[in-house]
Fold this protein.
Amino acid sequence: MQIKTITKGNILIAQPALYDYTFNRSVVLITDHNELGSVGFILNKPLNHSVNLYVSELESDFTVYEGGPVETQNLYYIHKRPDLIRNSEPISNGLYWSGEYDDVKNAINNNLIGEEEIRFYLGYSGWGENQLQTEVEDNAWIVVEDDLDIFQDWDNNLWKLQMKKLGGEHLIWLNTPADPSMN
């Protein structure tokens, strides 16, 4: 269901006309939203690198995803195991972000958490005060409430699936190239 008011846990779907390199055909999970701004992570852009490439002490080959253009030197994580990761920040529907890094390291290195329970992101997507709401009003984003399983292997199919779910005028974009000049 398409909405206009943004809250934590909402999904942002990039409008087809949003040609920004980072956000073109992106689907973003909003992990925090308040009067100071918004934070989210791109769900559908794997980097084809394992987390142990960035943090050698993690004994894992879990895929890292592009989270967004802000603080791309930092690694972030979304998970559904607050029982293993203390001080996790709730998002919605059993999803959490952040938490004690030592707990993450322990859970991964002792095989207590699987790739279907935690996902890593390089950088994040951030918006200042009222910036995201303005972008939504300018039709750069479609905001939806969705019970999306972010731990599935969505890759770039997620954007098309969301367009299909929206239906109507959005269906025309299913088979068009990401760069319309390639048409």
Notes: Residues 157-166 form the longest helix (10 residues). The two ends are 30 Å apart (CA to CA).
